[in-house]
Amino acid sequence: MDTTVADSPESGSGSAPDGAVTAQRDGTLLRLTLARPDRRNSLSSSMTDALVTALTEAASDDTLRAIHIRGAGDDFCAGADWVATNTGGQRPRTGDLVRRVPHAAHRAIELLQTIQLPVVCSVRGWAVGLGCNLALAADFTVAATDAVFWEPFVARGFSPDSGSTWLLPRLVGLARARRMLLLGEQVSGASAQDWGLIHQAVAPADLDSATEELLAALAQGPTVAIGLTKQALHHAQHATLPQALTQELFNLELSCRTGDFKEGLAAFAQRRPPGFTGR
Asked: What share of the chain in percent tops pLDDT 70?
């Protein structure tokens, strides 16, 4: 089933000028498509709000087992549409960004990191700014070898946002983070894999099949245990070893109460593949 999560009020004919985020339920998968191909899927304010809404709703949907985020057409996402945001009209009052961004772009990044469902991004073409950071915040990003990851904030005269300074050093270290953030170095999909920036780079023709293979594996896994592991990894990024061990202990207590835990033990004893249900 396809539903439009958000689009322009003028979307009666043709493509919506402000774009759309569409949600497609595919069994236990939720597929979110950034749909504004004529602007390389740059995110309007309404699209960012829609992405936050879709992820928030997915977080409490017990029937979902994985999320797929992709861009329509030839690109993943060219970032936030700053040109539209800053063209015409009255100048926003002081503090506008401080009030607005935490509930929009920043909230989307937080949700990707903390939602207890595995998130896979498939990237072809450009992944820029906020679009790049959406891909980096996902649990797994599969990209075409000729895709381009770019953080052009400083080149445009302003400092990074949407988690750039948190995500990049943790993924690739400070030296490479500086190359991307201070020098604006563009990184190909192939190099992104070599750097450890993303999960996998494949030939453009193989992007869809590689993504579907990964999504299928995640959707058949023990969803609760996957979510708790993701939560523990996120917690451990700012925890001491004793704090991380304590968190693992509580998560272990929860995961051992699931039906999938019992199925995993039974499958091991019977020497067969487990049939996890996500419960």
From this structure: 86
CA angle 93, 48, 160 (to 5 degrees): 65
Counting every residue, how long is the chain?
A: 279
Specify whether the CB–CB gap between 126 and 108 falls below 8 A.
no
The confidence band for 17, taking pLDDT boundaries of 50, 70 and 90, is: confident
Query: Closest Cα to residue 82, out of 72, 92, 94, 69?
Result: 92
- Nearest Cα to 203, choosing from 211, 186, 67, 195? 211
Residue 210: how many CA atoms within 13 Å on its side-chain side? 19
Q: pTM (2 decimals)?
A: 0.89
| Whether the predicted pLDDT of 12 surpasses 70 | no
Dump pLDDT digits (tens) for 20-46: 999 999 999 999 999 999 999 999 999
